[in-house]
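To whoever picks this up:

The nightly regression suite flagged Chemotaxis protein methyltransferase as changed. Nothing in the input moved, so I suspect the structure step. Input below, exactly as stored in the fixture:
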Amino acid sequence: MNAVTGKFDDPVTATASSATGPALGEVEFQYLRAFVLEHCGIALGEQKRQLVQGRLLRRLRALGLSNFQGYCELLRRDPHSELGELASAISTNVTSFFREAHHYDLLTDELLPRWLQQKRRDGDRLRIWSAGCSTGEEPYALAMVLAEALERSDGTLDAKILATDLSPQALESARKGVYSLERLAGISAERCQRWMLRGTGEYEGLACVHPRLRELVTIEPLNLLHPWPMSGPFDAIFCRNVVIYFDQPTKQRLFRRYADLLPTGGYLFLGHSESLHGINDQFELIGRTVYRKLGR
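Regenerated output under the current build:
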């Protein structure tokens, strides 16, 4: 029976279990592989079965399901209700404040001063998109350098950062903006003093982002593979350590869509292990994983 559209009535895969919970059978695994590729753009190799099984067992328990057959049937009935949780479970959200510091140095030393001068002169707005914002460290770090640039420019400007992610848990953390003190390691002491509020009493060991940063950041759910509600343009798009999970055709489509939302000369920032080489020719590499959109 077809692994994607058929019913899951194989008695072996439906009832098999492991020492820690139900086992992920062949039929269910192939269905999940096809589902994740279609809806998330993530290509799961055959060797990922144990990883998928281990990470989804928590979802089975949370949903009160006794086997993966039931989980696959849930996805077939209502694919969108569980999509964020599934994507969050099978991907690894590794992030930190000011990760890949050279990106923020470029913003601080060159891009933001130039943009602010131009936009104040022309009456334009400034927009940055953190695509795949995870638990919020990236957009709040961007907000710190943006807020500091605005202060130095001695004026007001319509400037905002859009932060999006597919994972409901990651978005909840980002909206709270509360982090353990250990997670502030990438922030300088001066910036911690300026932008992070230390908790006391029952909040000892935690810190909250300054309200000014919240003003600059808008956090919304978004599946990068689905239609986007925003029309741009963005001055810069940060999509770091996201496309490492995608197959080649998905990367090509995604970067074309990013190019559509960037003006000529707009910037695209990727993660340290990512590249546009052989994927998209609409950008030129100008620094370490920093690309600028070409004119046509």
